[in-house]
Design a protein that fits this description.
The protein is built from two helices and three strands. A three-stranded antiparallel β-sheet has the order 1-3-2. It is about 25% helix and about 35% strand.
């Protein structure tokens, strides 16, 4: 299994692990959409398998900053990016 980690807003866990988008406003939904689109572009998947929320940190610089997310509490998210084999 190949994985990659990203430091992301802790409150994104519900959306990225469970696909639950309730409670997010329009700007937050757009940021999550852009992040997942980039993951699909780069890795052909966006499957979050773990969130280390034991030691969250308030960070200004994190991996969601590219999507206009300001300083917030962040945790380390782990994604399975194992290449999908082509069965043709």
């Amino acid at each position: 299994m190949k994985t990659t980690t990203r430091m992301l807003p802790t409150h994104w866990a519900s959306a990225l692990i469970n696909g639950d988008l309730s409670g997010y406003d329009g700007e937050e939904l757009e940021a999550i959409r852009l992040f997942t689109a980039d993951m699909y572009r780069d890795h052909h998947r966006c499957w979050c398998i773990d969130v280390d929320s034991e030691s969250p940190s308030f960070l200004t610089y994190h991996d969601a900053r590219l999507y206009s997310v300001l300083a917030c509490e962040c945790s380390l998210f782990t994604f399975d990016v194992t290449p999908i084999e082509d069965n043709r």
